[in-house]
Amino acid sequence: MEEELPADLAGIKHKDLFKMKKSVFEKRAEKTLAKVGLTIHPSSLINTAAKEFNKIVHTMSDDQRKVAAEIRKKGKNVIHALTSRERKRLDLQTLQV
Question: What is the pTM of this model?
Fold first, then answer.
């Protein structure tokens, strides 16, 4: 049995509610960035084009640059893994129908 959603959330699809929550990865990445003195949001590192990312990290220290590159790499990996799992789930659904 599904839980009843509050009225202001009723129009939102159930699967989209999870996308709104801040991911565990983002929380950890923000803490890691803060440790090296960066206030940039992890998604802005992950979702920018390579040229833009290089412009952003150009002004950073070596430690900050390494952390930013690592978060970008791991973030891209997380996105790819989620996309792959969703594709697999959809493929299984079409096979079951």
Answer: 0.71
